[in-house]
């Protein structure tokens, strides 16, 4: 599945494969399969967003294979900032899609498929016409120790590492490290480590010829 986010209200950190960005109202982002990501509020717990989860084969009935491939290649996982007019266009289509979300008759399914394609076409146009947004400097950036810990986990997830090992790498007590890690990322250290391992394992299952036993090791 691919996860498409359209941010409406609130400001949040997003950690993508260990790199920290900030999402502002008017931003859109596409998260690809098997990409580790966590979100955490920056200044307030309140936020509003639209989320669309879709599998590429959902488009099979509307696009030819070559068309679908070209279409998906344009949709990258960069963060793109929309104008007020563009945000309004997306919200309008999301509202139409939401209207039929809980209906499953044949007509409703066809409408949902059409609205999904319309959303993705709009996003493709935005990505094609605009430059990727440059992330603004944060007045309250995550603590460097947490960014260092995330980088260490992403580099050494395949090794036998534990909480004490990671905490020692950034020179913090494991108890203090656990607390601030969760405050920044919204996940515990072990949850993040497990998610990274599962994500990488899923990617290897799809993209490599390794046996499950080899990947599990």
TrEMBL record:
Residues 147-217 form the HTH araC/xylS-type domain. Keywords: DNA-binding, Transcription, Transcription regulation. GO terms for molecular function: DNA-binding transcription factor activity; sequence-specific DNA binding. Gene3D superfamilies: Homeodomain-like, Regulatory protein AraC. The keyword Transcription applies. Coiled coil: none annotated. This is Transcriptional regulator, AraC family. The lineage of its organism: unclassified sequences, metagenomes, organismal metagenomes.
């Amino acid at each position: 599945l691919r996860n498409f986010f359209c941010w409406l209200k609130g400001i949040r950190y997003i950690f993508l494969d260990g790199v920290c960005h900030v999402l502002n109202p008017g931003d859109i982002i596409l998260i690809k399969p098997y990409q580790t990501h966590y979100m955490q509020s920056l200044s307030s717990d309140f936020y509003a967003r639209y989320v669309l989860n879709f599998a590429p084969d959902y488009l099979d009935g509307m696009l030819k294979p070559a068309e679908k491939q070209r279409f998906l290649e344009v949709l990258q996982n960069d963060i793109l900032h929309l104008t007020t007019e563009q945000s309004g266009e997306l919200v309008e289509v999301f509202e139409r899609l939401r209207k039929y979300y809980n209906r499953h008759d044949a007509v409703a399914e066809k409408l949902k498929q059409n609205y999904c394609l319309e959303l993705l076409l709009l996003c493709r146009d935005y990505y094609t016409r605009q430059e990727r947004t440059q992330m603004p400097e944060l007045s309250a950036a995550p603590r460097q120790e947490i960014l260092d810990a995330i980088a260490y986990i992403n580099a050494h997830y395949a090794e036998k590492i534990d909480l004490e090992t990671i905490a020692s790498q950034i020179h913090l007590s494991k108890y203090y490290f656990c607390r601030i890690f969760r405050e920044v990322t919204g996940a515990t250290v072990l949850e993040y480590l497990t998610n990274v391992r599962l994500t990488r394992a899923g990617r290897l299952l799809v993209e490599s010829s390794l046996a499950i036993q080899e990947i599990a090791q």
